[in-house]
């Protein structure tokens, strides 16, 4: 992964480099091969402004090329610099590079303006004026800084004023511990290094405000003497204390100290002007005084800030615009604003421009008698002045050349002659700088040559631009023509031939791949070159990384799968925020993915996948957002304090990329429930304040929690305590109920008020009651209880009850009246006229008359019917069952008794009941249930008596349910597949408990069904299965036959006979069933008929012509013959007729028969029935 990280910045660089290469293909200056005579060309030189380090040697560069190789000389401050006379100066061999040894010398001696001249017999080229200056880092002047005393709230400026250095130093403020002083919107450093305070606070008091200056060229740091600042709150001090503080210090007391509208400390006033050069960076600064601290904003008057080129620094106080253009000139307005008001300052920006090239002069190659132009096209503000030189001398002082004409920025050379080569210099200057360019004119007569290497391979991506070089040289300049596959290429929508001979294919496609030929030609000859182009498929990311929103400590996976040309192998680079991935093992780069383990907040950002090949790249980006629970709110403040309400405000914490949905406000009542926090209310996530309704006599503390999509934050720190004054109760106890627990009492209960509802000390409950419609109330006052028992009440009497809250400050609101009854007593009357109607052997219906309501003495809940089986009518037993009770609710007077026993004697009674208990029982009623069907017989068993008889035995049912009238026995045989035979029935008397079945079939499976019967019908059947005995004698006889010798011999003889028949058929088959081979050979001496080979695997006969006809649906070889299979049998031989037919699907039509008929003309062989031998032959 580290290897990939190291290249993480090369993706964009590769694209820029490719673009630059394309531009150079089309715009490269004319290069003269170095084997041809040519004037000098400067190839390397030091910068115009060269600041040297006095501790190191001075290296001044000047390198050039030419034919012959140029010699070098220097001027210093406009006069010849004799290098050889100064032992400290050495010119490096083959170049004009100077090395000046300043050890033991002062560097100031060699300061000045240097210029290099490179010359040969064809001309002279000159370098820029190189200004050599020594870097300087002067010491700070000794000074004593008096302590500064300032009133709290006023503005303050601490001046740095470092010594002038070369280059200017970098300024920063630190304390005695070398820690940078904190800066913010209130305290910030200006561009000139001064430290500005928009307003001072008490915490600004300190004695170590130190300004440092770092000189970058010498890497030295110098510091100013520490400055002491004392901040006073004069309003809180008396005159004596104030005088002591002011002793021996400067007092900044003129500026206002209270809240005020902003005003500008820098730049002062309402307007100012600044100048900037085109291409430089513009820095505008506004620093304001004010309390509260002002906020700064920027606008451009009559325009917009330049998109993508501006940024803000120093807490919006500095506006920076890079790469300034003329359009950036105009008025810029900075606005300082606080809650007291606003002020504004307008800065007018004037854009000037040092000279810049529109078209620099280019080397000019001319053949004798040709004409050419040197063009020096520049611009600037103000307009630059252009001067020309030739071979380093002003053109005005050079010899008069009638072929040369100078017109401002253009030199025209006409009808040039051999030997008139020279180097021309164009110098363009204005108040802000100069430009110097060398361009030579070389007069040559040279046939064409192609400089691009032969058979060079070019590779481009499909749908991109292809540039095929044909760099050439010749004088006159060669004309370039291009061919592809012998076809001439002309300028068109697809092709464009550039001035330098480069062939451009605007949109290359795979069909454009191939061999290209360029021909350079002039009047002195032709030169041909071949290049090859391959157009490849583009690299495309087919599965891009997607936006991820993950929680902290989880895993984030970005995919990046690519499709590419198979001949190109793409590499993968991952960037984070356009920089390298962190060097952290949590970042795992796979072949097609990036996995981030244990995600943290620092991992947030934009992740870019770049898939690079040597020709192209594709990239895709996705953002990772880390979400987590919000931070708790802070800065809880209580305002707008009233008796029953207060306003709570807070500052939200960091929402951690998941918007806050709501704020939950909780409270603690430290008076009544200390340490218990309860939810009070919720407000939307966009609110930072809430009006809270309060209760009297509560010691409130509040806290706030924030909820986002991840979860609930920790709680904020509690607010300060807020106590409400006591008051009389606002509410009465709820859930008031009246209940009777005994016949002469009544219980009144309620829910007590909470401490929050008490509203004051001394909480009590005023409980009142009276009979319904009575006039006099009975009242008691109670505390710390939730019920009261009233005794001596009449049974089940309606009462009116109220419960009112009272405390030391008064009574609560008028209570609601609640109705309820006093205690109940048991009913006094039993139900009468009880009648039972028997419905069946298992069900009966009972009726009764309701008891009078006056006898209930409470709320009638219903009736209880108690019934009990006394005995069975059949068995005459007296084993009573336990009584059963059925409850019929409400005022029901009829009920059904289910699940009774048939043919039984029952007893029944009924009683009313209420909430207190049961009343007296009614008189017992007797009833009987009729007979029912009996239960199943028990203990059924079946036994074998002999081969054809079975004995069935059983015992009577456990439940007769009446008088048994007999038994029904059914039986039937079943086979192994459980198919049933004929079902037979036998009726048996009630006193029978066994039965013998005779004349059954031996070794047979039987199924039996046995039912008991009463007069009512048959009961459920019992099913059994049994087998009759096996006849062992017959089985033994069969076994004896199988082991007899005569039986075994008979079976062997039959098997032998079958084997002999198979052998005979096989032999006859091999002898042939058509024509003997010998007869066929004697009758037809056909030379094409080859004798049979013993080892060819075919049979020894010939088939007739008809046998050679292919079957319908078969395919005949192209030579007209039919290849014989291992068997000569035709499928026709097995058909009923002579014609064997096939269906369309190739299946054979016709039945196989045991005989085959043939015409006598074909032979008198006997036909054969199909045999196993014939069947076997088909496999031979």
Automatic annotation (TrEMBL):
InterPro entries: FN3_dom, FN3_sf, Ig-like_dom, Ig-like_dom_sf, Ig-like_fold, Ig_I-set, Ig_sub, Ig_sub2. One of its GO terms (biological process) is axon development. The keyword Signal applies. The keyword Repeat applies. It is found in: Cell membrane; Cell projection, Growth cone. The chain crosses the membrane at residues 1046-1067. Gene3D superfamilies: Immunoglobulins (2.60.40.10). Keywords: Cell adhesion, Cell membrane, Cell projection, Developmental protein, Differentiation, Disulfide bond, Glycoprotein, Immunoglobulin domain, Membrane, Neurogenesis, Phosphoprotein, Repeat, Signal, Transmembrane, Transmembrane helix. PROSITE patterns: FN3 (PS50853), IG_LIKE (PS50835). Residues 1076-1096 have a biased composition (Basic and acidic residues). Residues 713-743, 914-937, 1076-1180 are annotated as: Disordered. Its main location: membrane. It comes from the Eukaryota. GO terms for cellular component: cell surface; growth cone; plasma membrane. Residues 40-127, 138-228, 262-348, 355-442, 448-534, 538-625 form the Ig-like domain. Residues 632-727, 732-825, 830-932, 936-1033 form the Fibronectin type-III domain. It is a single-pass type I membrane protein. Belongs to the immunoglobulin superfamily. L1/neurofascin/NgCAM family. Neural cell adhesion molecule involved in the dynamics of cell adhesion and in the generation of transmembrane signals at tyrosine kinase receptors. During brain development, critical in multiple processes, including neuronal migration, axonal growth and fasciculation, and synaptogenesis. In the mature brain, plays a role in the dynamics of neuronal structure and function, including synaptic plasticity. Interacts with SHTN1; the interaction occurs in axonal growth cones. Interacts with isoform 2 of BSG. This is Neural cell adhesion molecule L1. It comes from Danio rerio (Zebrafish).
């Amino acid at each position: 992964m580290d290897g990939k990280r190291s290249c993480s910045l090369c993706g964009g660089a590769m694209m820029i480099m490719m673009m630059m290469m394309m531009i150079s293909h089309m715009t490269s200056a004319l290069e003269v091969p170095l084997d041809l005579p040519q004037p000098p060309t400067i190839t390397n030189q030091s910068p115009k402004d060269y600041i040297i380090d006095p501790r190191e040697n001075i290296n001044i560069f000047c390198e050039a090329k030419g034919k012959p190789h140029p010699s070098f000389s220097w001027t210093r401050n406009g006069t010849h610099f004799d290098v050889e006379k100064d032992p400290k100066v050495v010119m490096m061999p083959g170049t004009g590079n100077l090395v000046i040894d300043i050890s033991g010398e002062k560097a100031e001696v060699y300061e000045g303006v240097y210029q290099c001249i490179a010359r040969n017999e064809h001309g002279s080229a000159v370098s820029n004026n190189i200004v050599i200056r020594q870097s300087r880092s002067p010491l700070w002047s000794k000074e004593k800084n008096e302590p500064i005393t300032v009133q709290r709230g006023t503005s303050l400026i601490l001046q740095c004023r470092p010594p002038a250095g070369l280059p200017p130093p970098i300024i920063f403020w630190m304390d005695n511990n070398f820690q940078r002083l904190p800066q913010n919107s209130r305290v910030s450093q200006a561009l000139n290094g001064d430290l500005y305070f928009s307003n001072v606070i008490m915490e600004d008091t300190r004695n170590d405000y130190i300004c440092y200056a770092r000189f970058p060229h010498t890497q030295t740091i110098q510091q100013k003497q520490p400055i002491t600042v004392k901040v006073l709150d004069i309003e809180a001090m008396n005159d004596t204390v104030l005088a002591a503080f002011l002793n021996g210090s400067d007092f900044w007391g003129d500026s206002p100290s209270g809240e005020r509208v902003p005003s500008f400390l820098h730049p002062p006033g309402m307007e100012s002007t600044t100048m900037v050069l085109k291409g430089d960076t513009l820095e505008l600064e506004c620093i304001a005084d004010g309390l509260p601290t002002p906020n700064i904003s920027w606008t451009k008057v009559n325009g917009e800030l330049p998109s993508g080129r501006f940024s803000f620094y120093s807490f919006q106080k500095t506006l920076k615009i890079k790469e300034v253009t003329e359009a950036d000139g105009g008025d810029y307005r900075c606005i300082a604003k606080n809650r007291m008001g606003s002020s504004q300052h307008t800065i007018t920006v004037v854009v000037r421009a040092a000279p810049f090239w529109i078209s620099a002069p280019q080397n000019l190659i001319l053949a004798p008698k040709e004409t050419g132009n040197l063009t020096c096209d520049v611009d600037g503000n103000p307009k630059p002045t252009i001067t020309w030189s030739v071979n380093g001398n002003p053109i005005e002082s050079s010899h008069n050349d009638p072929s040369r004409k100078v017109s401002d920025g253009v030199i025209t050379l006409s009808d040039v002659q051999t030997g008139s080569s020279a180097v021309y210099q164009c110098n363009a200057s204005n108040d802000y700088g100069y430009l110097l360019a060398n361009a030579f004119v070389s007069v040559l007569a040279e046939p064409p040559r192609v400089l691009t290497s032969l058979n060079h391979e070019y590779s481009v991506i499909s749908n991109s631009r292809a540039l095929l070089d044909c760099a050439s040289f010749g004088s006159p300049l060669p004309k370039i023509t291009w061919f592809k596959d012998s076809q001439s290429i002309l300028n068109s929508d697809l092709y464009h031939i550039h001035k330098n001979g480069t062939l451009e294919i605007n949109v290359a496609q795979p069909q454009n791949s191939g061999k290209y030929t360029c021909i350079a030609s002039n009047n002195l000859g032709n030169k041909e070159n071949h290049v090859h182009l391959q157009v490849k498929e583009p690299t495309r990311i087919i599965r891009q990384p997607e936006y991820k929103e993950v929680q902290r400590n989880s895993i984030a996976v970005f995919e990046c799968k690519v499709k590419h040309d198979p001949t190109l192998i793409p590499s993968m680079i991952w960037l984070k925020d356009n920089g390298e991935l962190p060097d952290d093992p949590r970042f795992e780069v796979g072949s097609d993915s990036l996995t981030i383990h244990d995600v943290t907040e620092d991992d947030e950002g934009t992740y870019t996948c770049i898939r690079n090949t040597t020709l192209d790249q594709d990239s895709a980006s996705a953002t990772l957002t880390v979400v987590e629970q919000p931070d708790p709110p802070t800065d809880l403040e209580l305002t707008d304090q009233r008796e029953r309400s207060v306003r709570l405000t807070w500052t939200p914490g960091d929402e951690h990329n998941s918007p806050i949905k709501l704020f939950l406000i909780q409270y603690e009542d430290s008076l009544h429930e200390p340490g218990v926090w309860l939810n009070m209310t919720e407000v939307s996530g966009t609110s930072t304040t809430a009006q809270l309704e309060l209760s009297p006599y509560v010691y409130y503390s509040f806290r706030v929690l924030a909820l986002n999509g991840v979860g609930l934050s920790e709680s904020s720190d509690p607010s300060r305590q807020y106590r409400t004054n006591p008051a009389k109760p606002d509410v009465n106890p709820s859930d008031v109920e009246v209940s009777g627990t005994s016949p002469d009492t009544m219980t009144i209960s309620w829910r007590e008020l909470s401490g929050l509802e008490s509203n004051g000390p001394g909480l009590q409950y005023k409980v009142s009651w009276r009979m319904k419609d009575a006039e006099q109330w009975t009242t008691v006052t109670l505390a710390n209880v939730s019920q009261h028992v009233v005794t001596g009440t009449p049974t089940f009497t309606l009462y009116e009850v109220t419960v009112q809250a009272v405390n030391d400050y008064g009574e609560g609101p008028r209570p609601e009246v609640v109705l309820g009854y006093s205690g109940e007593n048991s009913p006094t009357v039993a139900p009468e006229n009880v009648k039972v109607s028997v419905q069946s052997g298992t069900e009966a219906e009972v009726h009764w008359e309701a008891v009078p309501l006056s006898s209930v003495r409470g709320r009638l809940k219903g009736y209880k019917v108690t019934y009990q089986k006394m005995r069975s009518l059949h068995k005459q037993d007296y084993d009573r069952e336990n009584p059963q009770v059925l409850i019929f609710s409400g005022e029901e007077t009829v009920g059904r008794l289910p699940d009774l026993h048939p043919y039984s004697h029952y007893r029944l009674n009924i009683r009313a009941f209420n909430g207190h208990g049961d009343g007296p029982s009614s008189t017992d009623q007797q009833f009987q249930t009729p007979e029912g069907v009996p239960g199943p017989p028990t203990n059924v068993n079946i036994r074998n008596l002999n081969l054809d008889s079975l004995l069935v035995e059983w015992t009577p049912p456990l439940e007769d349910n009446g008088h048994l009238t007999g038994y029904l026995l059914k039986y039937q045989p079943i086979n192994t597949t459980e198919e049933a035979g004929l079902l037979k029935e036998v009726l048996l008397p009630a006193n029978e408990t066994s039965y013998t079945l005779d004349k059954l079939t031996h070794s047979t499976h039987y199924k039996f069904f046995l039912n008991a019967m009463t007069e009512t019908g048959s009961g459920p059947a019992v099913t059994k299965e049994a087998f009759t005995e096996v006849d062992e004698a017959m089985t033994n006889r069969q076994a004896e036959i199988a082991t007899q010798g005569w039986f075994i011999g008979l079976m062997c003889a039959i098997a032998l006979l079958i084997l002999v028949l198979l052998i005979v058929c096989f032999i006859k088959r091999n002898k042939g069933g058509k024509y003997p081979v010998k007869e066929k050979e004697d009758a037809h001496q056909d030379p094409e008929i080859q004798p049979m080979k013993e080892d060819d695997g075919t049979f020894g006969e010939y088939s007739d012509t008809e046998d050679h006809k292919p079957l319908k649906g078969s395919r005949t070889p192209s030579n007209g013959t039919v290849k014989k299979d291992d068997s000569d049998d035709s499928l026709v031989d097995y058909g009923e007729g002579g014609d064997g037919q096939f269906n369309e699907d190739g299946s054979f039509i016709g039945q196989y028969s045991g005989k085959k008929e043939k015409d006598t003309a074909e032979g008198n062989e006997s036909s054969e029935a199909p045999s196993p031998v014939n069947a076997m032959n088909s496999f031979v």
